[in-house]
Every structure is written in structure tokens, then in C-alpha cells.
């Protein structure tokens, strides 16, 4: 089979590999589509550590090509989405359903303490408990189940109620999915701040009640003005300290600042303990997804609660990943989706 393999920092080679055999509790998935994520970008550039050689790609979907001897829940030909977060189901976190905090942090093609070969390949091995049936949903749409599940988790972390106001800083692919997840949970109004004109326009089309151009007005003033006051949830979907501070600045007393974008591991910021105490503003992180989040995300996609197709702007082959990472670094386009068969 062909696989796009990270061989060193900044180096990817498309190589021929033996088709893997599934273990007794695994399925072998013929990859139909795998979308490209900023985690892949960081691993490619070495800002997230990964031992090489390694096949990246953790937002995949495809067809079951083979099943292990102990698998009776799936059959050859089933169409599935892949949850890349592999739980041990033995630690206390897994037993509580917090599979994303598993002490034996293992990921299929994504960031983790243990990283298994991912889905930028024609085939990938996956534990049977890590796939969800997608029926006739397209593979491209199903490939967005993983990032959507992260957004579902973020909304749960924000603990919103219908009618709670939300400000979102950043309308990249994940910010636009987060916007739709908040809408599905009943948030209102939702105000989005985004530098890029096209992304800001798309945010409005996807349901933002108001959009803010930070080139033209200060989000710390404009978001509360558009929302009728400071927001119940200030969500940062970029991963930068200045924009985390913006999200906190627009959060109302008693509200919550959601750190959803992935910050640099070495980044630090100052906060006022008194302000946290006196205003009762909560800082909340949102990391990855749980098994339940993934199931919910697949269900939402199956029932057309999410406009996924408008977020997919490029379809590429296995050979095109370096160019895709370059375009991501320049914030060009939205979701890039690898179709492994394009490389044949």
C-alpha cells in the first residue's frame, strides 16, 4: 500500500509499505478520506514531538477491508469513521468516561505519548471500539467527525445553557465548527471575531449573529456591543496568548473563558487572581474528545446538523501534504482533505 510517511522534521515521503494485518480486536480500514489538522502541521514542523518514521493523519473515514478474529460488531464493507483517541479502559479516567485523559495516552496518527500509524495511507489498523458506522454518509463529511467531536467536547466544557451568549475569537476550520456546535446547543447570541474577510463572511452564513473585523474595531469593545454586554462564554479558537486575553476580556462576571485553540507548549500568561476571585470568571481548557463526544459528532453529521462541506476547500493526494502544510501556514483555504486513491 502507499503511505505518506513523516521521516524527519519537515520531511514526508510517499512510500510503499506492506498492507497491515489487523489484530484480533481490530479492523483494517481502507481509507476513503482523511482531513488535515493543525496537529498534523505541528507534528510535521516538530513543535509536537513524534518519533519517526510515522504515518500521520487522525481525521479519517473509510471502508472496513478486514476484521480481526474477535470482532463481531463490524463486517467487511461497513463504512466507518475513525476515532483516533485509543482508551486503555483500565485507568481511572477511562472508567469515568474521560477517555481523552487516559493515563496511557495513545493516538492513531495524532499527538500522544504513544502514536500509532495514522490514516494518510491507503489502509490503517484501528481497534474495533474506535470506529463508528456512518451508513451512506460521504467519507469527506465523515472525516470531520473528529474535529467536530473536539468541538462537542468544548461546548460541554463551557457548560452553556440555551440562551447563553458566546464570543468566539477565530473563524478557521475549527472555529467555524465550534460556532455550529454552540448553535446546536442553543447559544444566543454568538459573536465571532475574525481577521479574514472570507472566513468572517462564512461565519455569518453559518449562523453567527454578529461578526467583528479586528482590523477595523477592537474585539474587546465590539463583541460586548454586539452581544448586548459581556458574554457568558468567551471562546478562543486560535491558540495565542493575546487572543486568549481577548476572550477573557469579553467574558462576563460569573462566566467562563474557554481555551480551545492549541497554545504553544512554552507559552505563559499572567492573570489576576483577585479578578478570578472577585468576578468568579472561570478559565476552562478543552482537550481532544471522549468516546461519547465522537459518537455524538457522527450522529450530528448523519442528521445534517452541521454544514461540513463548505469547510472543505481542497482535496489532495498523498503526495501533496507538504504543499498543504505550507498553505495552512499561510492561512490559505479551510479544510484540506487527503483522498489516498488520488495518488494512484
UniProtKB/TrEMBL annotation:
**Signal peptide position in this chain?**
none
Cofactor(s) listed: Zn(2+)
- According to its UniProt record, what is one Pfam family this protein matches? ADH_N
Q: Which UniProt keywords apply?
A: Metal-binding, Oxidoreductase, Zinc
Q: What InterPro entries would the database entry show?
A: ADH-like_C, ADH-like_N, ADH_Zn_CS, ER, GroES-like_sf, NAD(P)-bd_dom_sf, Zn_alcohol_dh
A GO term for molecular function: anion binding
Enoyl reductase (ER) domain location: 7-339
A GO BP annotation: small molecule metabolic process
Q: Report the Gene3D superfamilies cross-referenced here.
A: Medium-chain alcohol dehydrogenases, catalytic domain, NAD(P)-binding Rossmann-like Domain
The similarity annotation says: Belongs to the zinc-containing alcohol dehydrogenase family.
Annotated protein name in UniProt: Alcohol dehydrogenase
Amino acid at each position: 500500500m502507499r503511505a505518506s510517511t513523516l521521516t524527519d522534521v519537515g520531511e514526508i515521503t510517499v512510500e510503499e509499505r506492506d498492507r497491515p494485518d489487523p489484530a484480533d480486536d481490530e479492523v483494517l480500514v481502507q481509507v476513503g478520506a482523511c482531513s488535515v489538522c493543525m496537529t498534523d502541521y505541528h507534528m510535521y514542523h516538530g513543535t509536537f514531538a513524534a518519533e519517526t518514521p510515522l504515518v500521520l493523519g487522525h481525521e479519517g473515514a473509510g471502508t472496513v477491508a478486514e476484521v480481526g478474529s474477535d470482532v463481531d460488531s463490524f463486517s467487511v464493507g461497513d463504512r466507518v469513521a475513525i476515532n483516533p483517541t485509543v482508551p486503555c479502559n483500565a485507568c481511572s479516567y477511562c472508567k469515568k468516561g474521560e477517555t481523552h485523559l487516559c493515563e496511557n495516552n495513545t493516538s492513531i496518527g495524532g499527538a500522544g505519548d504513544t502514536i500509532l500509524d495514522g490514516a494518510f495511507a491507503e489502509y490503517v489498523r484501528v481497534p474495533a471500539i474506535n470506529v463508528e458506522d456512518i451508513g451512506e454518509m460521504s467519507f469527506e463529511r465523515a472525516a470531520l467527525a473528529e474535529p467536530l467531536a473536539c468541538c462537542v467536547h468544548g461546548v460541554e466544557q463551557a457548560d452553556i445553557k440555551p440562551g447563553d451568549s458566546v464570543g468566539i475569537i477565530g473563524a478557521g476550520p475549527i472555529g467555524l465548527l465550534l460556532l455550529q456546535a454552540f448553535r446546536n446547543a442553543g447559544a444566543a447570541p454568538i459573536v465571532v471575531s475574525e481577521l479574514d474577510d472570507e472566513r468572517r463572511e462564512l461565519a455569518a452564513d453559518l449562523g453567527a449573529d454578529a461578526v467583528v473585523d479586528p482590523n477595523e474595531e477592537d474585539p474587546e469593545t465590539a463583541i460586548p456591543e454586539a452581544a448586548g454586554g459581556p458574554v457568558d462564554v468567551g471562546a478562543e479558537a486560535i491558540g495565542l496568548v493575546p487572543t486568549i486575553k481577548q476572550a477573557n476580556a469579553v467574558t462576563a462576571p460569573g462566566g467562563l473563558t474557554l481555551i480551545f485553540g492549541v497554545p504553544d507548549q512554552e507559552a505563559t500568561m499572567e492573570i489576576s487572581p483577585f479578578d478570578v476571585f472577585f468576578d468568579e470568571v472561570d478559565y476552562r481548557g478543552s482537550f481532544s474528545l471522549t468516546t461519547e463526544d465522537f459518537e455524538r459528532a457522527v450522529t450530528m453529521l448523519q442528521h445534517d446538523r452541521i454544514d461540513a462541506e463548505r469547510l472543505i476547500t481542497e482535496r489532495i493526494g498523498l503526495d501533496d501534504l507538504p504543499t498543504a502544510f505550507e498553505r495552512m501556514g499561510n492561512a490559505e483555504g479551510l479544510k484540506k482533505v487527503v483522498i489516498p486513491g488520488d495518488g494512484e
